[in-house]
Amino acid sequence: MNGAVQQLSQIPLEAPAFEGLSFDEDAHRYFLNGKPLPGVTTVLKTAGFIDDRFYTEEGRIRGQAVHLAAHYHDIGVLDRTSLHPLIKEYFSAYERFLKETGFQVVFSENRVCHRDFRYAGTNDKIGYLFGRPALVDIKTGDIQFWTAYQLAAYAACYPYPLARYGLRLFPEGRYKLIPFEDKNEFSVFLSALTTANVKTQPQGGC
């Protein structure tokens, strides 16, 4: 392990407080001190990056269940007997990822916001991966191009540098880990944020 990586591995990972940030579960909306903030995925959808026309309700429910199983595991409260057989297959892929990479989860499903650029979101996992602080996002479907911008937006909310990875889980217990390393990805997200803000602002007549 070189000196730079060793130094990174010693960065204490703490979940920032993000005081004033709240989330309305029913409306799926974020607020900062009572004022609405757009969510990261909403921004990408409004700007035209995410096309959800082919998403299915089955896929949505499956993704939520796998995320919840991984979250409960990471906070130590998972009841494995409660898992549906299909969800167990995806979860076994997550367990294999943890075992083979040594990923140490420090906190999970953390709500974040950027006070300057005014957006919010919920990232999956923050921890140590390959000796570095890292953000890992779980997907049960294909990892799309826009995932790079999604994770860059989440990572920018933290006061320390984070490596970014998309983790694709497969039902037969396999996984695929994809790193995102382009430093321009956050700039692309900010462009999407500007576009989304313009599209959602009330348009006055001439």
Question: Summary?
Answer:
The protein is an alpha+beta fold and 206 residues long. The protein contains six helices and eight strands.
Explain what the structure shows.
The protein is of the alpha+beta class and 206 residues long. Helices cover 36% and strands 26% of the residues. The chain contains six helices and eight strands; from the N terminus they run αβββαααβββαββα. It has helices at 3-9, 40-46, 57-74, 85-101, 147-155, 185-200; strands at residues 21-24, 29-32, 35-37, 104-114, 119-129, 132-139, 163-169, 175-180. The protein is globular. The model has no long low-confidence stretch (mean pLDDT 92).
Q: Supply the helix-strand structural class.
A: alpha+beta
The profile of the biggest β sheet is: 5 strands, mixed
On the 0 to 100 scale, the average pLDDT is 92
Number of E-type strands: 8
| Shape descriptor | globular
Q: List the uncertain runs.
A: none
Report the C-alpha radius of gyration, rounded.
18 Å
**Strand composition percent:** 25-35%
How do the strands and helices of this protein lay out in sequence?
Elements: H1 3-9, E1 21-24, E2 29-32, E3 35-37, H2 40-46, H3 57-74, H4 85-101, E4 104-114, E5 119-129, E6 132-139, H5 147-155, E7 163-169, E8 175-180, H6 185-200
Parallel strand pairs: 6-7
Antiparallel strand pairs: 1-2, 2-3, 4-5, 5-6, 7-8
Helix pairs in contact: 2-6, 3-4, 5-6
Defining key terms:
single chain, 206 residues, alpha+beta, 5-stranded mixed sheet, 3-stranded antiparallel sheet, 26% strand, globular
